[in-house]
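User: Quick sanity check before I run a bigger batch. Here is a single chain. Can you write out its predicted 3D structure?
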Amino acid sequence: MRQVIRVLKTPVTLIILLAMLGYGAAWGFQHATMSDTRKVATCVMTDVGTKLTPGKVTVRVFNGGTKGGHAKTTRFYLTTYGFHVVSYSNSERAVITTTVIGNSANDPEVRLLAKMFNGATTEGDGRLDHVVDVIVPTEDQQFDNPPAMSVPVTGPVCLPPITSASETATPTPSPTPSATKKKK
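Assistant: Done. Predicted structure follows.
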């Protein structure tokens, strides 16, 4: 009996190892040939009536200065007025004035957010999701008081779907491409 077990132990072990190797090769081949195209987040045409209000705008806030805390302060300011701030973090891009970046500099969500700050500049980078980035400088930004609470629109506006309240104001581990893009 001992001799039978000794004789069978080596082939059984080899079969188990070959099965594990085969499974690993199949798994590796499947993942190596998998499509790398990811679903691009797009906006949804939303009928907001005749004016766009802060409750429909999704924002990411970035600190573009050397002193900490400005992104967090700006996040509190924007959420007070009803904006959906989905993240706040630091940016590698340094700014002198508050910079608002969206799909286009003339989009209603960009114009509404820019009206919240005195002297804010606007930029467009063609993003498809229509989330608006705000990069704040080291110097205290001047908030418009009282801020504009709406901008007029004609027809539906392309806006990102609003995320749940549990996802609001969660810091992101790294800045987005628009936040790290250097100004030419």
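The longest strand covers residues 84-90.

User: Great, the batch can go ahead then.
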